[in-house]
Amino acid sequence: MSQRFGPDLLRGSLDLMVLSLLANESTYGYDLQQKLLAASGQLVQLQPGTLYPLLHRLEGERLIRSRWDDSTGRKRKWYEITSAGRQRLVVQTDEWDRYVA
């Protein structure tokens, strides 16, 4: 599919998308990129220059945390949602549901 979300819709939804994916399981950056792509039906193709600053901001807001791990054979930075991130996800999901309704 060659269509993409408009930049304003995408920009306003990225936190919700990332937190939603991390609510299910922890993962590393490239895998998160691929999961966003798959979950969006190939519509959300985040470049590293967009994804990593977003992850750093979410981490700075203590909505996610990271850790280095090399158990997959390669040293990767893994991200997981925090309890504050889960609370934010509930609020943003509620806001999104009301907006869509």
List keywords for this structure.
3-stranded antiparallel beta sheet, 14% strand, globular, alpha+beta, 3 strands
Task: Explain this structure.
With 101 residues, the chain is of the alpha+beta class. The chain contains four helices and three strands; from the N terminus they run H-E-H-H-E-E-H. It has a three-stranded antiparallel beta sheet with strand order 1-3-2. A hairpin with a 6-residue loop joins strand 2 (64-69) and strand 3 (76-81). The mean pLDDT is 89.
How much strand content do the residues show? 5-15%
Structural class: alpha+beta
**Poorly predicted ranges (pLDDT <50, ≥5 residues)?**
none
Q: H/E element string?
A: HEHHEEH
Strand order, largest beta sheet: 1-3-2
* Mean pLDDT across all amino acids: 89
Coarse shape = globular
Instruction: Output the radius of gyration.
Output: 14 Å
Largest sheet: 3 strands, antiparallel
Q: How far do the termini sit from each other?
A: 26 Å
- State the helical fraction: 55-70%
Query: What is the number of helices?
Result: 4
Task: Count the E strands.
Answer: 3
